[in-house]
Recover the amino acids of this structure.
Protein backbone atom coordinates (compact mmCIF):
# COMPACT_ATOMS: atom_id res chain seq x y z
CA UNK A 1 0.00 0.00 0.00
CA UNK A 2 2.86 2.40 0.81
CA UNK A 3 4.55 1.73 -2.52
CA UNK A 4 1.31 2.26 -4.45
CA UNK A 5 0.69 5.52 -2.55
CA UNK A 6 4.12 6.73 -3.70
CA UNK A 7 3.41 5.60 -7.27
CA UNK A 8 0.11 7.50 -7.24
CA UNK A 9 1.83 10.62 -5.86
CA UNK A 10 4.58 10.42 -8.51
CA UNK A 11 2.15 9.68 -11.36
CA UNK A 12 3.65 6.26 -12.11
CA UNK A 13 1.35 4.06 -14.19
CA UNK A 14 1.69 0.41 -15.21
CA UNK A 15 0.30 -1.64 -18.09
CA UNK A 16 -0.32 -4.86 -16.19
CA UNK A 17 -0.56 -6.05 -12.60
CA UNK A 18 0.56 -9.67 -12.28
CA UNK A 19 0.65 -11.14 -8.81
CA UNK A 20 0.06 -14.09 -6.53
CA UNK A 21 -1.01 -12.59 -3.19
CA UNK A 22 -1.17 -14.45 0.11
CA UNK A 23 -4.24 -16.70 -0.12
CA UNK A 24 -5.18 -16.41 3.57
CA UNK A 25 -5.47 -20.19 3.80
CA UNK A 26 -3.46 -20.45 7.02
CA UNK A 27 -5.43 -21.59 10.06
CA UNK A 28 -2.66 -20.89 12.54
CA UNK A 29 0.72 -19.17 12.76
CA UNK A 30 2.72 -22.33 12.12
CA UNK A 31 3.35 -23.55 8.58
CA UNK A 32 0.62 -25.86 7.27
CA UNK A 33 1.55 -29.52 6.75
CA UNK A 34 -0.22 -32.56 5.34
CA UNK A 35 1.65 -34.84 7.76
CA UNK A 36 -0.62 -36.82 10.13
CA UNK A 37 0.75 -38.41 13.31
CA UNK A 38 -1.38 -40.38 15.76
CA UNK A 39 -4.50 -39.09 14.06
CA UNK A 40 -3.52 -35.42 14.41
CA UNK A 41 -2.15 -32.96 11.85
CA UNK A 42 1.48 -31.94 12.36
CA UNK A 43 2.41 -28.28 11.91
CA UNK A 44 5.93 -27.09 11.30
CA UNK A 45 7.29 -24.43 13.64
CA UNK A 46 8.51 -22.52 10.58
CA UNK A 47 6.30 -19.79 9.17
CA UNK A 48 5.02 -19.81 5.59
CA UNK A 49 6.54 -16.35 5.05
CA UNK A 50 9.30 -14.73 7.08
CA UNK A 51 7.42 -11.40 7.50
CA UNK A 52 3.73 -12.20 7.07
CA UNK A 53 1.21 -14.39 8.86
CA UNK A 54 -1.57 -15.62 6.56
CA UNK A 55 -4.33 -15.71 9.18
CA UNK A 56 -6.77 -12.86 8.61
CA UNK A 57 -10.47 -13.41 9.21
CA UNK A 58 -12.57 -13.69 6.05
CA UNK A 59 -13.93 -10.19 6.61
CA UNK A 60 -10.46 -8.70 7.12
CA UNK A 61 -9.11 -10.40 4.03
CA UNK A 62 -12.00 -9.27 1.83
CA UNK A 63 -11.68 -5.64 2.99
CA UNK A 64 -7.91 -5.77 2.50
CA UNK A 65 -8.35 -7.09 -1.07
CA UNK A 66 -10.88 -4.40 -1.96
CA UNK A 67 -8.44 -1.72 -0.78
CA UNK A 68 -5.79 -3.29 -3.02
CA UNK A 69 -8.07 -3.06 -6.04
CA UNK A 70 -8.97 0.55 -5.27
CA UNK A 71 -5.25 1.36 -5.40
CA UNK A 72 -4.78 -0.75 -8.53
CA UNK A 73 -7.39 1.41 -10.21
CA UNK A 74 -5.20 4.49 -9.64
CA UNK A 75 -1.95 3.06 -11.03
CA UNK A 76 -3.23 0.91 -13.92
CA UNK A 77 -3.19 2.50 -17.37
CA UNK A 78 -6.40 2.57 -19.45
CA UNK A 79 -7.22 -0.89 -20.86
CA UNK A 80 -4.69 -2.55 -18.58
CA UNK A 81 -5.30 -5.92 -16.96
CA UNK A 82 -4.89 -7.43 -13.51
CA UNK A 83 -3.76 -11.07 -13.57
CA UNK A 84 -4.61 -12.25 -10.06
CA UNK A 85 -3.67 -15.77 -8.92
CA UNK A 86 -5.81 -17.15 -6.09
CA UNK A 87 -6.49 -20.58 -4.68
CA UNK A 88 -8.25 -22.05 -1.67
CA UNK A 89 -7.42 -24.14 1.37
CA UNK A 90 -9.04 -27.28 2.70
CA UNK A 91 -10.26 -25.50 5.82
CA UNK A 92 -11.75 -22.48 4.02
CA UNK A 93 -12.70 -23.29 0.44
CA UNK A 94 -15.40 -20.59 0.22
CA UNK A 95 -13.17 -17.55 0.82
CA UNK A 96 -11.81 -17.48 -2.75
CA UNK A 97 -15.29 -17.00 -4.21
CA UNK A 98 -16.38 -14.47 -1.56
CA UNK A 99 -13.33 -12.34 -2.38
CA UNK A 100 -13.94 -12.43 -6.14
CA UNK A 101 -17.63 -11.60 -5.68
CA UNK A 102 -16.92 -8.56 -3.50
CA UNK A 103 -14.24 -7.23 -5.87
CA UNK A 104 -16.80 -7.41 -8.69
CA UNK A 105 -19.58 -5.85 -6.61
CA UNK A 106 -17.64 -3.12 -4.82
CA UNK A 107 -14.73 -2.01 -7.03
CA UNK A 108 -14.39 -0.69 -10.59
CA UNK A 109 -13.22 -4.09 -11.85
CA UNK A 110 -14.96 -7.20 -13.16
CA UNK A 111 -13.67 -10.63 -14.14
CA UNK A 112 -13.03 -10.83 -17.88
CA UNK A 113 -11.59 -14.33 -18.02
CA UNK A 114 -10.48 -17.13 -15.75
CA UNK A 115 -7.21 -18.88 -16.61
CA UNK A 116 -6.82 -22.41 -15.28
CA UNK A 117 -3.24 -23.08 -14.22
CA UNK A 118 -2.60 -26.78 -14.66
CA UNK A 119 0.39 -27.62 -12.53
CA UNK A 120 3.04 -30.11 -13.53
CA UNK A 121 2.56 -32.07 -10.29
CA UNK A 122 -0.47 -32.45 -8.04
CA UNK A 123 -0.93 -31.16 -4.51
CA UNK A 124 -1.20 -34.34 -2.42
CA UNK A 125 -4.38 -34.57 -0.43
CA UNK A 126 -4.15 -38.13 0.77
CA UNK A 127 -5.09 -37.20 4.33
CA UNK A 128 -8.62 -36.07 3.43
CA UNK A 129 -11.41 -38.58 3.01
CA UNK A 130 -13.53 -36.28 0.84
CA UNK A 131 -11.41 -33.51 -0.82
CA UNK A 132 -10.10 -33.83 -4.37
CA UNK A 133 -6.40 -33.88 -5.09
CA UNK A 134 -5.74 -30.48 -6.65
CA UNK A 135 -3.99 -30.22 -9.99
CA UNK A 136 -5.15 -26.69 -10.87
CA UNK A 137 -5.26 -23.14 -9.55
CA UNK A 138 -6.85 -20.04 -11.04
CA UNK A 139 -5.78 -16.70 -12.40
CA UNK A 140 -8.63 -14.23 -12.60
CA UNK A 141 -8.24 -11.69 -15.40
CA UNK A 142 -9.69 -8.38 -14.22
CA UNK A 143 -10.40 -5.32 -16.33
CA UNK A 144 -12.31 -2.17 -15.47
CA UNK A 145 -16.07 -2.40 -15.96
CA UNK A 146 -15.98 0.21 -18.71
CA UNK A 147 -13.07 -1.54 -20.51
CA UNK A 148 -14.46 -5.06 -20.76
CA UNK A 149 -14.56 -4.86 -24.58
CA UNK A 150 -11.30 -2.97 -25.05
CA UNK A 151 -8.69 -4.27 -22.57
CA UNK A 152 -5.32 -5.26 -24.02
CA UNK A 153 -4.21 -8.75 -25.05
CA UNK A 154 -1.77 -10.20 -27.59
CA UNK A 155 -4.40 -12.01 -29.65
CA UNK A 156 -3.38 -12.09 -33.30
CA UNK A 157 -5.68 -11.72 -36.31
CA UNK A 158 -5.79 -14.98 -38.27
CA UNK A 159 -8.11 -13.88 -41.09
CA UNK A 160 -10.52 -11.15 -42.18
CA UNK A 161 -13.94 -11.94 -43.61
CA UNK A 162 -15.45 -10.35 -46.72
CA UNK A 163 -17.40 -8.05 -44.38
CA UNK A 164 -14.14 -6.98 -42.66
CA UNK A 165 -14.84 -9.07 -39.55
CA UNK A 166 -11.59 -10.00 -37.78
CA UNK A 167 -11.05 -13.61 -36.70
CA UNK A 168 -8.35 -14.22 -34.10
CA UNK A 169 -6.02 -17.07 -33.34
CA UNK A 170 -7.28 -18.62 -30.10
CA UNK A 171 -5.40 -18.63 -26.88
CA UNK A 172 -6.79 -21.08 -24.44
CA UNK A 173 -7.80 -20.52 -20.84
CA UNK A 174 -5.74 -23.46 -19.59
CA UNK A 175 -1.98 -23.17 -19.17
CA UNK A 176 0.33 -25.93 -18.00
CA UNK A 177 3.37 -24.72 -16.08
CA UNK A 178 5.69 -25.55 -13.20
CA UNK A 179 4.19 -25.44 -9.70
CA UNK A 180 6.59 -22.85 -8.23
CA UNK A 181 10.19 -21.66 -8.12
CA UNK A 182 11.10 -23.79 -5.14
CA UNK A 183 10.59 -23.43 -1.41
CA UNK A 184 13.20 -21.72 0.75
CA UNK A 185 13.52 -20.57 4.36
CA UNK A 186 12.09 -17.13 3.52
CA UNK A 187 9.06 -18.24 1.51
CA UNK A 188 7.42 -21.66 1.54
CA UNK A 189 4.87 -20.71 -1.17
CA UNK A 190 6.78 -19.16 -4.07
CA UNK A 191 5.14 -18.22 -7.38
CA UNK A 192 6.06 -19.84 -10.70
CA UNK A 193 8.21 -17.76 -13.08
CA UNK A 194 7.41 -20.34 -15.78
CA UNK A 195 3.70 -19.64 -15.40
CA UNK A 196 4.23 -15.86 -15.11
CA UNK A 197 6.20 -15.87 -18.38
CA UNK A 198 3.34 -17.61 -20.19
CA UNK A 199 0.85 -15.07 -18.85
CA UNK A 200 3.08 -12.21 -20.01
CA UNK A 201 3.15 -13.65 -23.52
CA UNK A 202 -0.66 -13.46 -23.62
CA UNK A 203 -1.26 -10.04 -22.08
CA UNK A 204 1.91 -7.92 -22.29
CA UNK A 205 3.99 -6.22 -24.96
CA UNK A 206 7.76 -6.12 -24.71
CA UNK A 207 7.59 -2.42 -23.76
CA UNK A 208 5.06 -3.05 -20.97
CA UNK A 209 5.60 -2.07 -17.36
CA UNK A 210 4.40 -4.82 -15.01
CA UNK A 211 3.72 -4.38 -11.29
CA UNK A 212 3.79 -7.17 -8.71
CA UNK A 213 2.74 -5.87 -5.27
CA UNK A 214 3.73 -9.17 -3.63
CA UNK A 215 7.12 -9.77 -5.25
CA UNK A 216 8.28 -12.33 -2.69
CA UNK A 217 11.41 -14.05 -3.98
CA UNK A 218 11.15 -12.41 -7.40
CA UNK A 219 9.36 -14.90 -9.66
CA UNK A 220 7.45 -12.21 -11.59
CA UNK A 221 10.63 -10.14 -11.96
CA UNK A 222 12.51 -13.16 -13.29
CA UNK A 223 9.74 -13.80 -15.82
CA UNK A 224 9.74 -10.14 -16.92
CA UNK A 225 13.52 -10.21 -17.39
CA UNK A 226 13.28 -13.33 -19.53
CA UNK A 227 10.35 -11.89 -21.50
CA UNK A 228 12.01 -8.52 -22.00
CA UNK A 229 9.57 -6.12 -20.29
CA UNK A 230 10.02 -3.88 -17.25
CA UNK A 231 8.91 -4.75 -13.73
CA UNK A 232 8.15 -2.83 -10.55
CA UNK A 233 7.80 -4.88 -7.39
CA UNK A 234 7.09 -4.31 -3.72
CA UNK A 235 7.82 -6.64 -0.82
CA UNK A 236 7.56 -6.15 2.96
CA UNK A 237 10.41 -8.60 3.67
CA UNK A 238 13.83 -6.98 3.20
CA UNK A 239 15.46 -10.43 3.04
CA UNK A 240 13.12 -11.56 0.25
CA UNK A 241 13.71 -8.25 -1.54
CA UNK A 242 17.48 -8.84 -1.49
CA UNK A 243 16.96 -12.46 -2.55
CA UNK A 244 14.78 -11.39 -5.50
CA UNK A 245 17.28 -8.74 -6.66
CA UNK A 246 20.03 -11.35 -6.70
CA UNK A 247 17.87 -13.72 -8.78
CA UNK A 248 16.85 -11.03 -11.26
CA UNK A 249 20.41 -9.69 -11.65
CA UNK A 250 21.68 -13.19 -12.44
CA UNK A 251 18.99 -13.60 -15.12
CA UNK A 252 19.87 -10.23 -16.67
CA UNK A 253 23.60 -11.06 -16.71
CA UNK A 254 22.89 -14.40 -18.36
CA UNK A 255 20.72 -12.75 -21.02
CA UNK A 256 23.40 -10.07 -21.56
CA UNK A 257 20.99 -7.16 -21.97
Amino acid sequence: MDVMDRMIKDGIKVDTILTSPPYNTGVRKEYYSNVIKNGKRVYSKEKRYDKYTDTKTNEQYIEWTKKLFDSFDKILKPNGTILYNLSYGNENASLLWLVIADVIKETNFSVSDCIVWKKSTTLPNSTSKNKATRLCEFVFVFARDKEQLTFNTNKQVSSISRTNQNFYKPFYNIIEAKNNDGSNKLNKATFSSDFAFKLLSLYCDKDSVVFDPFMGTGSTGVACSKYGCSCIGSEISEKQYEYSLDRINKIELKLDF
User: Anything to note?
Assistant: Residues 2-255 form a domain with the Rossmann fold fold (CATH 3.40.50.150).
